[in-house]
Amino acid sequence: MIILMCGFPGSGKSTLTTKLCAVNPNILRFSGDDIIHMMGQGYDWSVHGKIIPKMERLFVEKTLLAGKIPLLDRTHLTVKSRRKYLDLCEPDLCEAMIFHIDRPEHNEEVTGWRDNNAKRPEKTLVPDKALEDMKGFYVKPELSEGFSRIVVVEDVHTFDCSEFSEIKYVG
């Protein structure tokens, strides 16, 4: 199994991934924001845009080999951005689940994203122009992409993760 997050910056993806990992030790989280923070730098597309995807892919491969469940804490706003990870899962051997953070206030206005984005550490802030662009290319996840399940989450703070405490790697 592989788990992806889907949601705009500041929607609560990292909060939810922390909760999921807390209820299930088989789930291992990867976040590009954490890598950037550890490196002590702001986001630089020319550097991080190449390194982080390679690290994510290696993380998924090694986590699956270890019999654990990789969880990728990233926006995954387009079919293409999700497809590259689904391709790592052989359909008959590996399930893919996506948690879609679908906050109503984020669907209508970029203002909600900006407010939440402003609360992030300075080095992981997303530029306003990028937030505007994201709204334009966002595609809601569909089962037809290859997901075995789409979990829609409106409020990460009240979402009950207990149902996911027992999921295990099957492969």
What is the count of helical runs? 7
Q: Name the poorly predicted regions.
A: none
Q: What characterizes the major β-sheet?
A: 5 strands, parallel
Biggest sheet: strand arrangement: 2-3-1-4-5
What's the mean pLDDT score? 81
Measured as a percent range, the helix fraction is 40-55%
What's the N-to-C terminus distance?
8 Å
Total number of beta strands: 5
Summarize the helix and strand pattern as letters.
Answer: EHEHHEHEHHHE
The class by helix and strand makeup works out as: alpha/beta
Shape: globular
Specify Rg, calculated over alpha carbons: 15 Å
Q: Strand share of the residues?
A: 15-25%
List the helices and strands and how they pair.
Blueprint: E1 2-6, H1 13-23, E2 27-31, H2 32-39, H3 45-65, E3 69-73, H4 79-86, E4 96-101, H5 104-108, H6 111-117, H7 128-137, E5 149-153
Parallel strand pairs: 1-3, 1-4, 2-3, 4-5
Short characterization:
Helices cover 41% and strands 15% of the residues. By secondary structure, it is of the alpha/beta class.
